[in-house]
Amino acid sequence: MKQVLGAEQVWLVFGGALLVAVLLALVGHYLLFRASARNARTPHNTVQDSLLRHSRRPARVILPLMAILLVLPLVPVDPDYVEAIRHVIRVGTIASMAWLALALTQVFEDVISARQRTDQWDDHTTRQVQTRVRLLRRVALVFVGVVSLAAILMTFSSVQHLGTSLLASAGIIGLVAGIAARPILSNLIAGVQIALTQPIRIGDVVVVEGEWGKIEEIYTTYVVVKIWDLRRLVLPLTYFIERPFQNWTRRTDNLLATVFLYADYTVPVEVVRQELHRVLLASNLWDGNVWRLHVTKMTAQTVELRAVISAEDSDKAWDLQCHVREKLIEFMQTHIPGSLPKAREVAQGAV
């Protein structure tokens, strides 16, 4: 056939065949996803709906590549050109398959989110699952990216033979690469550990580096903590594996808060205790579980009163502390001013 057709005609046939193959693949893609979309309109079909939504674009690349690969043996073109085109298609297929794999991780996340809505999980379970899914998904993104890049590089013969020439220096290169990649690998491994053991979750209230804040986001290699004054503290994942920190919401959100008051020895403790109870009953910040007031310390001038109160979460606990402190001080100033701390002077000559 090459002898019958001229060079220009061969390339015309070749281009036309590839164009027809791509158009047919795109038409097939359109019909396939349109028919599948109709079936996905039925209720409670979250998996199919998410799969169609996230795989549509990768499939739009994969199907034309497969069609071109099928047409190549039928066109009268020099084998060298065909092999070059096959190599390009091979690289494109690997990249698009990696794209599809990443889309499937998003499908998994969508399914978990749908279960949260239908099963009505509590806040702790929701944050626990979200943290695990997001971390594992990001680790999967890195893994798929590395594997696909390695697979693409291995399609080049020059890269394959490069390993032979560098074999003598492989030990040094491996050592240098290991040292350079150690922080990245450590954080990736820490990400898997956090996903499985979950010392922290998204939304947890923590105290790190002397700062109080909430876990705002957990990325592949670092964690963002939103500080109470809206600053962001960025810490590597390994920090939460290797160093101690406080997690105020590890099991439950409920917290005990303390309020310290300093009064004169003449203070009627029972009166202050009853006023504390009255203030708590009148406040919508108290969860109704724990309240008590004790004398915990005495000095030469004052006694220390410690009030222990409970709240549903850390935000309410802080507001309740401030509220109780203000109300008790106001009560002492108004009703028992003689109980406020005072300085005493010992008269000269007194025994």
Give the structural class: alpha+beta
Number of strands: 8
Q: What level of helicity do the residues show?
A: 55-70%
Spatial ordering of strands, largest sheet:
4-3-2-1-5
The number of helical elements comes to 9
- Separation, N- and C-terminal Cα atoms: 128 Å
Number of domains: 3
Unreliable stretches covering 5 or more consecutive residues: 1-6, 162-177
Named at the architecture level, the CATH assignment of the largest domain is Roll
Approximate strand percentage: 15-25%
CATH first level of the largest domain: which class?
Mainly Beta
Largest sheet: 5 strands, antiparallel
CATH topology of the largest domain: SH3 type barrels
**Average pLDDT metric:** 78
Shape: elongated
What is the rounded Rg?
34 Å
Q: Tell me the series of helices and strands, N- to C-terminal.
A: HHHHHHEEEEHEEHEEH
Report on the structure:
The chain has 9 helices and 8 strands. It is an alpha+beta fold. The strands form 2 sheets. The protein has a 5-stranded antiparallel β-sheet. It has a 3-stranded antiparallel β-sheet with strand order 6-8-7, with helices on one face. A hairpin with a 4-residue loop joins strand 3 (222-227) and strand 4 (232-236). The longest helix has 41 residues, at 79-119.
What is shown here, in short?
By secondary structure, this protein is an alpha+beta fold. Helices cover 59% and strands 16% of the residues. The radius of gyration is 34 Å and the shape is elongated.
Please give a handful of descriptors for the protein shown:
Alpha-Beta Plaits; SH3 type barrels; alpha+beta; 351 residues; 5-stranded antiparallel beta sheet
